[in-house]
């Protein structure tokens, strides 16, 4: 019993220190790799708004795009800018800004239809649910295939990382290191006491 009281007294400062100084929780970035597709109505050369869908680790994803052509370049590519929303169903959603290039239209050899490449950077500025306070950057690459005069087929890959306090939180490494060091020192001290008592023929449990 005396040995147990001594052990508890030695542990108490470590426990108090860990509770009083837990450290700041860190949110590890979550890596996303999404494949989305859908059709868009060809509204004209100046604006695009469409919805893409696909699977993810959080469930079905719905991506809503709303961009405007800022300029038409000399090679007939178009510089665009706008906003986006990625909904992960009941898990929440992220929103942000979209900037990039719609490549110059060309004839797709396989389909003989007009094809344009898509290259953008998506900057996440906020979110809801698990994604509240989200930040991050996603790469948006894909193709826009004009099926007819009214409809284009869009296929996109989204890759990148998202950070949000509600996604993943781990204890501050310094806190875990402090606790581990203290317990290691305590164990070493008890081992030395037992070894010394054993050499003297004493009962280590009766040591004060």
What this model shows, in words?
The chain is of the alpha+beta class. The chain has two helices and nine strands, in the order αβββββββββα. Strands 1, 2, 3, 4, 5, 6, 7, 8 and 9 form a nine-stranded antiparallel sheet that branches. A hairpin with a 6-residue loop joins strand 2 (47-54) and strand 3. Helix 1 (2-20) packs antiparallel against helix 2. The longest helix has 28 residues, at 173-200. The chain is elongated. Mean pLDDT is 78; it is low at 8-25 and 169-179.
Keywords:
single chain; 208 residues; alpha+beta; 9-stranded antiparallel beta sheet
Helices and strands, with pairings:
Layout: H1 2-20, E1 30-41, E2 47-54, E3 61-72, E4 78-87, E5 92-102, E6 106-107, E7 114-129, E8 135-146, E9 151-163, H2 173-200
Antiparallel strand pairs: 1-9, 2-3, 3-4, 4-5, 5-7, 6-7, 7-8, 8-9
Mean pLDDT: 78
Globally, the shape reads elongated
Order of helices and strands: HEEEEEEEEEH
Q: What fraction of residues sit in β-strands?
A: over 45%
Separation, N- and C-terminal Cα atoms: 10 Å
Instruction: Assign the structural class, choosing from mainly alpha, mainly beta, alpha/beta, alpha+beta, or little secondary structure.
Output: alpha+beta
Indicate the radius of gyration in whole angstroms.
29 Å
DSSP summary: helix tally: 2
- What profile does the largest beta sheet have? 9 strands, antiparallel
Please give the number of β-strands: 9
Determine the fraction of residues in helical runs and give it as a percent range. 10-25%
Low-confidence stretches: 8-25, 169-179
């Amino acid at each position: 019993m005396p040995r147990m009281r001594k052990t508890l007294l030695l542990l108490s400062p470590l426990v108090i220190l860990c509770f009083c100084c837990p450290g700041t929780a860190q949110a590890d970035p979550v890596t996303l790799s999404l494949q989305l597709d859908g059709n868009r109505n060809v509204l004209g050369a100046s604006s695009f708004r469409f919805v893409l869908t696909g699977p993810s680790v959080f469930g079905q994803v719905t991506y809503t795009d709303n961009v405007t052509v800022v300029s038409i370049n000399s090679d007939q590519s178009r510089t665009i800018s706008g906003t986006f929303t990625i909904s992960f169903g009941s898990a929440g959603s992220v929103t942000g800004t979209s900037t990039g290039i719609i490549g110059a239209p060309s004839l797709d050899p396989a389909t003989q239809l007009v094809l344009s490449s898509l290259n953008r950077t998506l900057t996440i500025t906020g979110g809801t649910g698990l994604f509240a306070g989200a930040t991050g950057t996603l790469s948006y690459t894909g193709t826009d295939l004009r099926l007819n005069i009214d409809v284009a087929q869009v296929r996109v890959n989204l890759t990148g990382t998202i950070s949000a306090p509600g996604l993943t939180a781990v204890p501050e490494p310094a806190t875990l290191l402090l606790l581990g060091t203290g317990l290691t020192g305590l164990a070493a001290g008890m081992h030395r006491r037992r070894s010394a008592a054993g050499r003297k023929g004493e009962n280590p449990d009766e040591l004060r």
